[in-house]
Model the fold of this input.
Amino acid sequence: MSDQVNKLNEILKENLITTEEFANCIGISEKQAIAYCQGSKKISSSLQKQIEQTFSKPVNWLNSEGDAEGPNFDLFG
Done:
């Protein structure tokens, strides 16, 4: 599993949300969200920024290895 897939699944776990709820948060279909979370679809740079902003992750968090520097807050916690 890629680091990006692991991080997307980390978002789901830390916010206690389903892929459907994740999709609703960022304005995509559940089918697309599942594809991103399984790694079968590549995340565009604009969607990456949107995910990071929506879930209060540092810039380039989805592309970095390990944790990136900067604020890191749960959206619902």
Observations:
- The mean pLDDT is 87.
